[in-house]
Amino acid sequence: MSSVLNQHVLVLNRLWQAVNICTARRALTLLFQGHAQVVLDRSAGSFQTYNFNEWHGLSEQEPHPESVRTVSFLIRVPRVILLIVYDHMPKKEVKFTRHNIFERDKNMCQYCGKTFDRKDLNLDHVIPRDRGGPTTWENIVCSCIECNTLKANRTPQEAHLHLIRKPKRPKWRPFVQINFSLHQHDSWKHFVDLAYWNVELGEDVR
Ligand SMILES: [Zn+2]
């Protein structure tokens, strides 16, 4: 029973886009709480959605090997669920860490555009801290020691330096973070293929 509950379930947002993978246990909880519906391919690409009661009814009427029996009822384990209230899922944001700043800037000095080892890069406040420059995604960039020394305690303009790119908070790209191929299941194919086309492309797309 526990292994069935640990199976992977594909999570779709309200636009029917694949956004996550969760365990069957979590999927059934979301279903029970009314936060999600089960998506089932009834006949070659004709998808039906089921709320908890409907899914429970179907599970009893058409017993399926992948079901869980509780004290009082039998319920089939879903493969795909559709979130009704997407906002109930925690919003994922890229954490503002040294590592992630290097990741965003790809170990490239944002003034001269050259790539360095991380140990040869500093984090630079674009607008210097003592001029009120905040420590935020928008005001911190990777800088090589040479550019950093040249810039000193000045703005890029004052130092005649140009940022090669405006620093921004990186966007969360859910499709990049999930390795769907590891968990591929037939009933996911339709949505995972769609995800491939709907993914927001970042600069790191090869
Ligand atoms: Zn540099």
Structure description:
By secondary structure, the protein is α+β, with helices and mostly antiparallel strands. 25% of the residues lie in helices and 21% in strands. It is built from 7 helices and 9 strands, in the order H-E-E-H-E-E-H-E-E-E-H-E-E-H-H-H. The protein has a 5-stranded mixed sheet. Strands 5-6 form a two-stranded antiparallel sheet. The protein has a two-stranded antiparallel ribbon with strand order 8-9. Strand 5 (67-69) and strand 6 (74-76) form a beta hairpin. The longest helix has 10 residues, at 52-61. It is rod-shaped, with a radius of gyration of 24 Å. Mean pLDDT is 82; it is low at 199-206. Bound molecules: zinc ion. Zinc ion binds at residues 109, 111-112, 114, 143-144, 146-147.
